[in-house]
Amino acid sequence: MKKEILLSIEGMHCPMCEKNLESALKETEGVKKAKVSLAGKTAKVTFDDTKTDESKISAAVAEAGYKVV
Ligand SMILES: [Cu+2]
Description:
By secondary structure, the protein is α+β, with helices and mostly antiparallel strands. The chain is about 30% helix and about 35% strand.
């Protein structure tokens, strides 16, 4: 099933961070949509919950160099 979550992200400092994280999320298996906001310090992620879950998405965020808070 499709699920949407809004994550609070720590560690983004510039528009490159925003782009980096967004593309990292989009490349994550099971992720359908990702919209990262530098100003809002958030990532809105739509994913297929048969393929991934919130902890795997958080791990992908950490791998990209940022942190879910
Ligand atoms: Cu940056």
